[in-house]
Amino acid sequence: xxxxxxxxxxxxxxxxxxxxxxxxxxxxxxxxxxxxxxxxxxxxxxxxxxxxxxxxxxxxxxxxxxxxxxxxxxxxxxxxxxxxxxxxxxxxxxxxxxxxxxxxxxxxxxxxxxxxxxxxxxxxxxxxxxxxxxxxxxxxxxxxxxxxxxxxxxxxxxxxxxxxxxxxxxxxxxxxxxxxxxxxxxxxxxxxxxxxxxxxxxxxxxxxxxxx
Length: 212
What we know:
Helix content is about 10%, strand content about 35%. The chain is mainly beta and about 210 residues long. The chain has a single domain (about 20-210), classed as Lipocalin (Beta Barrel).
């Protein structure tokens, strides 16, 4: 279940209040940064996503929560949308998860996969304005020794993703061939991205204050 996103004007360090960056993606055309963050405790997982405007002074636009740890994010190349993929292994033999779609202007969030348990989404890539490439873990690891290092890839096509309804992505949409599916750790790269995009804004803001 996702929480209702909220807009926020932020402060000198708008990231301090939300946690440790685990995954970060940028939209240079719009000047946006999406960051999946974990809590302060050692075993906290990245179930929160913040979207920030970093064109001038870093400012938080939206903050949403996922039911599962976030593994992938991708800004739509044309539409004001962010796709978010999440999921987890249930400790038995199922891989569960969500494919979320955040509208960057309205803040509306939709969970797209029709099945109650969804799929663990490991990778997302917009191939164009209609096609979303989705990399997923298998449904389960029952008698499947490679389930934790392989997965399935599918390309989901919609004419207009801003009009896609919740629970409208079916099992047929997500059917695809078996492929290698590594689970890389993006934490260090995410920290570096956040530092690179936000530190200059904070320094410039302080400098302007001293000169004013």
